């Protein structure tokens, strides 16, 4: 159980301006605990800190009281609300092995998942319909194989990955870039509640921390660090998902990428990763084959996440709609180009496209383009 004064010392150390993780680690290595740091006179910090850092630690941060009150109330509210320290016995070994592991993590949910074999599934916040389907399908199959799916709770691919794992009855970890009082994005509050019951949410950011742009690249190192590998589903250039992939590679973890159309901006990040050595994957089994032997507890999966789930003739669509699908091919295409290929009247073609979209056979892309989905 935590003591309020002990928690206050930790927050003061970690929230003091100019005191980063490296400095905090150095102080703790020399002095043993945050309380010991603040029990010493300032002169004792002479050899450990710069003058600005000594000045910063000499007085509590302005927001410390609010952060302490909020964190303390959060800890008392539910037994699943916990704090994990770097020295704790169940600190994730995969994360411990990275270059910059957090000293303190806030947890909500199933703490035991930190010892599970994890795979990160990340990608665009604005994926194509097919990209969203792929994220959900890969996460579902990998969760069924026994992997815990790690992602960032963001819109798009992240949310679909969490949903796929949950739908399979599997495990998922959401890594936030905010404090626990500010679920981001807001529209994922219901998803976050479901994850906290069936999986785990964690953050290194204290109570009151908003979703600052600088938080999310740092958050990505935790997604990669917790995982045996990182699967990028869709990503433009540049993309935060490519940061996660780079961090995974630097930590000696596997990087996987799903290829897409050469005409889709959402595929360019994945293609760049493949050129740099990431493994091109078409199925969940492709991912599992590259993981270290014995690192995941499940059985191989036979389902293909990329190939059509039903034969073309079995689709519930008219002969005219099948002809439209044939004209589309598998690359993104605009209405004008499709009309030029088939010579259809624009009004009739638009009606067929709308029906196909409502049936889930195609997806609408930015710029009034359309693309067939995996089951079409």
TrEMBL record:
| Biological-process GO terms, alphabetical | DNA-mediated transformation
Per the UniProt record, the source organism is: Kinneretia aquatilis
Tell me the superkingdom of the source: Bacteria
Q: Where does the Smf/DprA SLOG domain lie? A: 83-291
One Pfam annotation, family name?
Answer: DNA_processg_A
Task: List residues of the DprA winged helix domain.
Answer: 313-368
Family the UniProt entry places it in: Belongs to the DprA/Smf family.
Name of the protein in question: DNA-protecting protein DprA
Q: Per its UniProt record, what InterPro entries does this chain match? A: DprA (IPR003488), DprA_WH (IPR041614), DrpA_SLOG (IPR057666), WH-like_DNA-bd_sf (IPR036388)
């Amino acid at each position: 159980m935590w003591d309020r004064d002990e928690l206050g010392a930790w927050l003061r150390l970690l929230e003091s301006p100019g005191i980063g993780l490296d400095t905090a680690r150095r102080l703790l290595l020399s002095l043993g605990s945050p309380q010991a740091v603040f029990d010493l006179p300032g002169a004792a910090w002479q050899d450990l800190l710069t003058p600005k850092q000594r000045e910063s630690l000499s007085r509590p941060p302005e927001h410390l009281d609010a952060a302490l009150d909020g964190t303390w109330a959060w800890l008392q509210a539910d037994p699943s609300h916990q704090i994990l320290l770097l020295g704790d016995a169940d600190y994730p070994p995969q994360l411990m092995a990275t270059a910059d592991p957090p000293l303190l993590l806030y947890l909500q949910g199933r703490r035991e998942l930190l010892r599970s074999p994890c795979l990160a599934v990340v990608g665009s916040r604005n994926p194509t319909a097919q990209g969203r389907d792929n994220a959900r399908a890969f996460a579902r199959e990998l969760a069924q194989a026994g992997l815990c799916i790690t992602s960032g709770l963001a819109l798009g691919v992240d949310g679909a990955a969490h949903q796929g794992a949950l739908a399979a009855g599997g495990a998922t970890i959401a890594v936030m870039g905010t404090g626990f009082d500010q679920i981001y994005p807001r529209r994922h509050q219901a998803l976050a509640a479901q994850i906290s019951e069936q999986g785990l949410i964690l953050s290194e950011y204290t109570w009151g921390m908003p979703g600052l742009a600088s938080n999310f690249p740092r958050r990505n190192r935790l997604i990669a660090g917790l995982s045996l590998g990182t699967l990028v589903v869709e990503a433009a250039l540049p993309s935060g998902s490519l940061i996660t992939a780079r961090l995974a590679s630097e930590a000696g973890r596997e990087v996987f990428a799903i290829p897409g159309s050469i005409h889709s901006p959402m595929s360019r990040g994945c293609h760049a990763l493949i050129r740099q050595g990431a493994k091109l994957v078409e199925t969940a089994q492709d991912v599992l084959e590259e993981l270290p032997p014995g690192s995941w507890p499940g059985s191989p999966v036979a389902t293909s996440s990329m190939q059509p789930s039903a034969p073309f003739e079995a689709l519930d669509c008219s002969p005219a709609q099948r002809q439209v699908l044939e004209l589309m091919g598998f690359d993104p295409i605009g209405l004008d180009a499709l009309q030029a290929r088939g010579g259809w009247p624009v009004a009739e073609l638009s009606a067929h496209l709308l029906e196909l979209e409502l049936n889930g056979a195609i997806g609408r892309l930015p710029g009034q383009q359309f693309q067939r989905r995996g089951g079409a």
